[in-house]
């Protein structure tokens, strides 16, 4: 299937509902109050309980006054925690060939680890993310790993597998005119297109040379008008956050951590904090003074009260008469009511995403071992393991494509293979606990020296493990002598 035809509706009707839903998640993730107000106007202005959303109220603040609605960045915090659980320690990518492993480590270094962390955060907020491999001779002789947000892509699936995807980017918007760049990835080829249209219409194609970002790819186009990658794989992979998609059942797209009731809970949390701040504003101490205490400031300037004046003369009115003295007025601040409501809402938001309250600092306690942490954060660990099963295939797909692209472009002569993806533990076990566990297993004669070394050093390869085992056996006298007979003594 080629790039879209001229004058096609945009976004395509097939994905319009999902993209509109992502726009709401994107607004919550950004924390921009103007975006939140925009996406919740109209049909989305009421919560599921029938209450009007805080961000669905179209009343603008009076001129000269600031916006009184407060946003708590809980959605962004949930996405950040999700990414940290998944990729704070980058996964181990392994292949069988030693030389290929060295090249793989070079391609997926610290830069790739940082990119995966960023991609996972966006994935948690929008329901998924696309990992893309590209190349640029000016950057270096190697394939590059990058990512594209889910709300800028139109994927095509067959039997749950992505067969093609079209990415788009708004390059310029002037009034009602929009210039878009489209990039379509198919097996073995990448197409580029430049369209001049409107907000809801793709418009007509224009030459790629009309914009600097697309002019750079013109020299790379083949006879078919596309870039031939030279590999039979897609140069893009879809990494869903988690499934299934509850709002759009049957959709191959992943589910956002904010999907469902979490949005209403976030809106209620913002309303609670806005109410709390309103209490603080209204509770500022105010003085009610008799008119006799006011001093004329001159023609047209009104009258005022000097709160720094120390000496005052008494008024010629009975002291028992109402309004004879200065009265201080200050409202109470409902601290406990607001705090308990906010804490309960945060807990519900966290649990709706599949996480344990302890992961977000709730129900904290004293320092604990790794085993105790995993027990306390059981829900978070279960959610993490589920997400690794969605992330691992996408990582293997894109890294395999990188290795094949590395060879096809002449950057390497090594034979590529599909890597194995291994996620480490979310919580590092403390050395004392590890030593105690290994000691008990050794006393029970239920563990070998090699297994103990691998447990302590999970990142070592087979050669390093074998060398360490030999050293331990030599130092502890466990080395078995060679009992074969000496030939000249037979």
Automatic annotation (TrEMBL):
Ranges where the record places region Disordered: 41-61
Alphabetical list of Pfam families matching this protein: SPP1_portal
Bias (Basic and acidic residues): 43-52
InterPro entries tied to this protein: Portal_protein_SPP1_Gp6-like
The name this protein goes by in its record: Phage portal protein
């Amino acid at each position: 299937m080629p790039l879209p035809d001229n004058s096609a509706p945009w976004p395509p009707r097939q994905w319009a509902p999902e993209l509109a839903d992502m726009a709401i998640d994107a607004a919550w993730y950004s924390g921009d109050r103007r975006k939140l107000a925009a996406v919740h106007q109209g049909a989305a202005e009421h919560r599921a309980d029938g209450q009007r959303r805080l961000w669905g109220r179209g009343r603008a603040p009076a001129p000269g006054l600031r916006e009184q609605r407060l946003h708590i960045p809980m959605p962004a915090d949930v996405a950040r925690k999700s990414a940290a659980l998944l990729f704070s320690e980058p996964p181990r990518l392994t292949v069988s060939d030693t030389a290929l492993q060295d090249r793989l480590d070079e391609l997926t270094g610290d830069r790739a680890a940082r990119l995966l962390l960023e991609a996972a955060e966006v994935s948690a907020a929008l329901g998924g993310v696309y990992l893309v491999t590209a190349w640029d001779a000016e950057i270096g002789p190697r394939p590059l790993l990058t990512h594209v947000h889910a709300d800028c892509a139109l994927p095509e699936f067959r039997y749950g597998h992505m067969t093609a995807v079209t990415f788009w980017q708004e390059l310029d918007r002037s009034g009602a005119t929009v210039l878009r760049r489209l990039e379509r990835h198919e097996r073995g080829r990448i197409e580029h297109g430049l369209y001049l249209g409107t907000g809801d219409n793709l418009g007509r194609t224009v030459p790629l040379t009309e914009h600097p970002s697309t002019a750079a790819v013109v020299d790379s186009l083949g006879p078919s008008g596309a870039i031939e990658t030279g590999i039979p794989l897609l140069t893009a992979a879809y990494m869903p956050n988690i499934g299934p998609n509850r709002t759009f059942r049957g959709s191959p797209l992943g589910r956002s951590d904010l999907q469902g009731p979490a949005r209403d809970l976030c809106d209620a949390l913002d309303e609670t904090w806005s109410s709390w701040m309103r209490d603080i504003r209204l509770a500022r101490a105010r003085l009610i003074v008799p008119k006799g205490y006011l001093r004329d400031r001159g023609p047209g300037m009104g009258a005022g009260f000097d709160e720094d004046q120390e000496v005052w003369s008494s008024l010629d009115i009975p002291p028992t008469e109402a309004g004879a003295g200065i009265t201080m007025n200050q409202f109470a601040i409902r601290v406990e009511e607001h705090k308990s409501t906010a804490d309960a809402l945060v807990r519900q938001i966290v649990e709706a995403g599949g996480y344990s309250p302890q992961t977000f600092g709730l129900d904290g306690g004293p320092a604990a071992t790794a085993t105790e942490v995993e027990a306390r954060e059981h829900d978070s660990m279960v959610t993490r393991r589920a997400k690794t099963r969605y992330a691992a295939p996408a990582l293997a797909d894109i890294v395999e494509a990188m290795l094949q692209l590395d060879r096809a472009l002449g950057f390497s002569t090594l034979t590529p293979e599909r890597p194995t993806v291994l996620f480490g533990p979310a919580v590092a076990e403390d050395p004392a606990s590890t030593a105690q566990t290994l000691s008990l297993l050794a006393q029970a004669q239920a563990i070998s020296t090699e297994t103990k070394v691998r447990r302590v050093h999970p990142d070592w390869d087979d050669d390093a493990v074998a060398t360490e085992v030999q050293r331990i056996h030599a130092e502890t006298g466990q080395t078995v002598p060679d009992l074969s007979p000496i030939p000249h003594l037979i």
